[in-house]
Structure formats: C-alpha cells, structure tokens
Write a structure and sequence with these properties.
By secondary structure, the protein is of the alpha/beta class. 36% of the residues lie in helices and 19% in strands. The two termini are 25 Å apart.
Length: 258
C-alpha cells in the first residue's frame, strides 16, 4: 500500500488539485503523506517545509527541469525553504514560461485559425495550452494537441529556458533538505540520467511508467550511491497513490529532512 505519494502537482502549476481538495484526494487513496512538487514554482500556500492539512502530512517540494549537457531531466527537491538564489531562478523561469506560452499560442492560432483562451500567468505550461485547444473549435483534443501541434516535434513547439544541471542542483541543495532525480526511465538517455545520481541524495524508485523498466538498475544505483528511494504518482489530476513509498521509507525521508 502507498503510504506517501511524493510527486504531486496542483493548480499552482499544471495540476488539478488545490490545497483545499488535496486532503480528500489523499483520503480516497488511503495516502497519509503527500509532497507537493509543482513545476518551477513554490506553492504560496505552504510556508513551512513540512506541514499538516486535515491530518495529511504535506511536504513542500518542487520539480525543476535541468539540462545536463543536452540531456534534460527533472530534479525533485523536498522540504524546500525560500532562498535568494532560488527566488531569482524561479522568477526568471516563470517569466520565460509566460513568454514561451505566448509564442506557442501565437503559432497555434496561426496554424489552426482559431483563438485560444489561455491565461498568461505564472505556472502556465503546455498542458494549459492543450486544454485550451481541446476547448476551442480546433480539430484536436488534449492528446491530439500534443501529438500534432505542441509536442517536442510539433509545428507549434517553442523551447523554454532550462538551467544547467549543476546550477539547478546547487540551488536546490541550498534550499531543500533532500534533492533527487525524478522518473529516470523517462529520460532520453537512462544511463546518462543514472550517472547524475552520484551527486544527488535520492532517486524516484517507484513511478507509474505504464511499461516495463529495469528496476534492478535503480536498486544498484541506490546501493552504490547510498540514495534515499522515493516514489510518486506524478499526479496532474486528483488521483493519488498510483505510486509512492511505504511508511518505513517515508520515515527515512522525514529523518533526512530534519
């Protein structure tokens, strides 16, 4: 059973949950603890690294995309506190997100001839644009928007600015109790992603990939680098507990955060 889901998104980035709806979602999944890990953004409603909402332990975290020599991966920071360096980095990334979203929407509107309703504000990303495409008169649903328009190889794709791995890692180290690698088998180069673990604290061991992965490679890396294993559903909807950690493993994380 999943005791803690350590990879969850809210409406603060591109998820569906709010801090108000999170406890009920956790209860439905029999989850006792959750890490809120919004993309490139801290949650303004979480002032402490660890708090409790209606009996649910909530870890304030963040998911940060970084570039390791052309290999893009995601870092998960747990038990985050605001620092000057983190604030400056996130302000830059959010400005870039807004500019990128405007550029993508312009391309989509020219390509399809429809007008999209997108709020250009902090946290905006491609999922918001895909939802707007789905709600418009364009001949694409949410999935089709990614497959045919705004995916990485799509005609309306626009790249966003991503900090170097070393920069992101060091900024998170200064502000977070634990810094780990998210979903390593989603990386274009799994071996390259796993090599980054040498300088991290943790790795996402349990994740709903929807396909077979070589879990033995992760177990070897966890032992080799003395890593904390984490896990989470990467929830962008309101269903929690698709992946996570047991109570004993969560206890190790809590100890590390202290």
């Amino acid at each position: 059973m999943c005791y803690a889901d350590l990879h969850v998104h809210t409406t603060n980035s591109d998820g569906a949950l709010t801090l108000e709806t999170l406890p009920a979602a956790a209860s439905r999944a029999s989850v006792e603890a959750v890490a809120v890990t919004d993309h490139d953004r801290l949650h303004p409603g979480l002032s402490e690294p660890v708090t409790t909402l209606e009996g649910v332990t909530v870890i304030h975290g963040i998911e940060l995309r970084v570039d390791a020599g052309g290999l893009r991966v995601d870092l998960l920071g747990y038990g985050v506190r605001q620092t000057a360096a983190l604030e400056a980095l996130l302000e830059h990334l959010q400005r870039d997100r807004i500019e990128r979203a405007r550029a993508i929407v312009t391309r989509v509107e020219r390509h399809t001839g429809v007008e999209l309703d997108v709020a250009f504000e902090e946290g905006v990303g491609r999922p918001h644009i895909a939802r707007a495409i789905d709600a418009s008169e364009a001949d694409y649903d949410y999935r089709g928007a990614f497959e045919h328009l705004i995916g990485d190889d799509g005609p309306c794709f626009v790249a966003r600015d991503v900090p170097a791995f070393e920069t992101g890692r060091d900024v998170l180290r200064e502000s977070c109790g634990v810094v780990g690698l998210a979903h390593p088998f989603r990386a274009d180069d799994t071996e390259g992603a796993l090599a980054l673990l040498e300088t991290l604290d943790a790795v996402e061991r349990w994740y709903p990939y929807g396909r077979p992965v070589d879990e033995g490679l992760l177990d070897e890396a966890i032992e080799r680098y003395d890593l904390l294993p984490t896990g989470g559903s990467d929830a962008h909807d309101e269903e929690l507990g698709l992946a996570g950690v047991d109570e004993a493993t969560f206890g190790r994380l809590r100890t590390a955060l202290r």
